[in-house]
Amino acid sequence: MSRFSSREIYNILESLPDTGPKFLRNFIPIILAFVFGLGLPKSFSLLYAVLFLIWLITVRPKPNKSLPRLIVFSSLLLFFFGISYSVMQILNTVWMPVTSYIPEIVAISVLPAACLYIGAFVDIKLEDIAKLVVLYATGSLAYAVLSVLISHQPWHNFNQVFPHVLRSPWGSVRYLSVRAIEQRAFLVICFLSAFILALVRKITHLSLLALLYLPLLGFGFYVVYSTNSRLFLPPLLLSLIPLSGLINKAVYKQLLYTSTMLIASILAFFGKLCDERIWLQYEFVRHAGQSFMGGRKIIFRYRDCVPGGFNHFGSFDNANTFTPHNVFLDIYNDGGVIPASFFIIAFMALMLCLGRLLFPILFNKPSLYAVVLWTFASVYICQLLTQPFLYTDQLFFTIGFLTFGCSVSALTRYRNLNKNALLE
């Protein structure tokens, strides 16, 4: 039986006609984005298969493609992060016996680095990656809405608010924390910035866009109401920043920024925006010296939003929480300074590379597709800063690096096309 090389497979796919199989090739990423958003069982197995196919079709035929140095640097550090985190989890006897945690070890060691590196090889247009992000967000919202609906007791009690847990629509875990569910609605809510930009620009098919988005926005806020969520506010405010590019006069921009900060300060002063995470993370940093090698050994108390009240942090009985509700600090708490340093530096390098490409087309004359990518990055960053590693959607955490890698490729292509247009 003859074997095709990856270059031959790539050439065959490129030579297909515009109908039939090539249509399926273009349609499959759309289905995959929605499926990954749904978080169906075996999604991680599917992600491994997708990465292998991307590598086979995209990376191997172009091994000499030049990638931004920051992407290569970040991918390498993510690999070191995964290895060191796994080693520390084993040394701290958290992942014991080792054979029972092979899937976790492989996932954390391979997936983030592979997603970023392989994603940067993908030749994709800016509008295509934006569409895939929207479809992923739609699937993610569907998961959250289903979780809320099947948790109602009785089923028609649509005003019910869930303080602690919700039923999961599928998977081996029957119940999940509301914090793990609420975050799945944030992307759709934060796409409000792209919708406002579309209204201002009066894009074609605007009525169809409104017909599709407004019901999704309603479902998103319904999830927020049902989970009594406050965490959608930071990414929403962050996602609206590019709209300041629509304001021509600097004085109006300054007025907008000042009024936003003033409103937030007033709400915080009266306790409407109070969140224990502020004191929790502040005290965690202060007491980080208790354990440089992880192992969840840090213990302290921190202020509560109730005047005069205090909570207790630590991995012991009757503690109020055992996680600092911050992925960076969680990694430090679990694995210590080595994996935390690798991850922080890798993520900063990635954001620097992405920012250099994204900002020039975001704030001068905002592109609709660039705003979608900015929204994704806003939600992702806020998730890392406010959610525990345990409750963070692990698939979203991993696919985020694939999205960022593809975004760097798409933005590089967009920049090069504009340069060539100017030269002509």
Give the biggest sheet: 2 strands, antiparallel
| Net shape | globular
SSE order in H/E notation? HHHHHHEEHHHHHHHEEHHHH
- Bin the helical content: 55-70%
Model regions low in confidence, pLDDT < 50 over at least 5 residues: none
Compute the number of strand runs: 4
The portion of residues forming beta strands comes to under 5%
Average pLDDT rating: 84
Strand order of the largest sheet: 1-2
Tell me the number of structural domains. 1
Determine the structural class based on helices, strands and strand pairing.
mainly alpha
H/I helix tally: 17
Radius of gyration: 23 Å
Could you explain the architecture of this structure?
With 424 residues, the protein is mainly alpha-helical. The chain has one domain (6-250, 353-423). The protein contains 17 helices and four strands. The strands form two sheets. It has a two-stranded antiparallel ribbon with strand order 1-2. A two-stranded antiparallel ribbon has the order 3-4. The mean pLDDT is 84.
Short summary of the structure?
With 424 residues, the chain is mainly alpha-helical.
List the helices and strands and how they pair.
Elements: H1 6-14, H2 21-38, H3 43-59, H4 69-91, H5 102-119, H6 126-151, E1 165-167, E2 175-177, H7 178-182, H8 186-190, H9 192-201, H10 206-226, H11 233-239, H12 250-269, H13 276-286, E3 300-303, E4 310-313, H14 327-335, H15 337-358, H16 368-386, H17 394-423
Helix pairs in contact: 2-6, 3-5, 4-5, 4-15, 5-17, 6-10, 6-16, 9-10, 9-16, 11-16, 14-15, 15-17
